[in-house]
Amino acid sequence: MQAQWLLWLALALAAGVVEILTLSLVFAMVAGGALVAAVVAGVTSSATLSVLAFAASTGLLMAVVRPPLLRYSGRLGPGPATGVAALVGRQAVVTRQVSSAEGEVKLAGEIWTARADRPGAVLETGSLVVVTRIEGATAVVSPSRHEAVEPLESGPGPALPPPGPALSPPGPALPPPGTLPDARPDSPPGGRREPRRDSAALPGGENLSDRAES
């Protein structure tokens, strides 16, 4: 049968598509075996040889090639979550009261329909929640460990106490240490003052004080 190699080729393509969907590395080995069988069928036109080639090549690939590929993919680890899967575990803000039946949250800048993950739970507007899973277009949420903190309204601070009584002005400045105020010229030593004598001059050049003594 001249067209049998086309059948093997179609089997290889189908196995490749299934491998893309499953990523199990099993159908990739089947696709490789089918390609080997297609080559054998095209060269020999023998159905028996092509079946034997398919079985042998597929078994060899499963035993030799698949294990190292699995170890390599395990070292790489799972890739980063994308799309809806990336929303699981993120925080959201309740925009309309969420119950086990209905509600709305703001998630990743968008409004999502939401419901609580526990029956009877009620999440008030403004509270923080965590997305546990996504079901279609609905986010299933649970209360967050960190409560939402509402911003405080700014206002005038507390009134300051009135100022205390005014301090009295300082007294007269004291003289520098080691100095004494100037003594009056008519003060005798010791600080006692003698009565002042009127030294007004009388006619003839006689002083009033001299006249009083005489």
Helix and strand pattern: HHHEEEEEH
Q: Please state the CA-atom Rg, rounded to the nearest Å.
A: 55 Å
Please report the distance between the alpha carbons of the first and last residues: 179 Å
As a percent range, the share of helical residues equals: 25-40%
Strand content: 5-15%
Low-confidence stretches: 148-157, 198-202
- By DSSP (H or I, 4+ residues per run), the number of helices equals 4
Could you describe the largest sheet, including whether it forms a barrel? 5 strands, mixed, barrel
Rounded mean pLDDT score: 75
Could you say which overall geometry the principal axes of the C-alpha atoms support?
Answer: elongated
Question: If you had to describe this structure to a student in words, what would you say it looks like?
Answer:
The chain starts with a helix and ends with a helix. The protein is elongated, with a radius of gyration of 55 Å. Helix 2 (27-44) packs antiparallel against helix 3 (47-76). A hairpin with a 2-residue loop joins strand 2 and strand 3. The protein is built from four helices and five strands. The longest helix has 30 residues, at 47-76. It is an alpha+beta fold. The chain has a five-stranded mixed beta barrel with strand order 1-2-3-5-4.
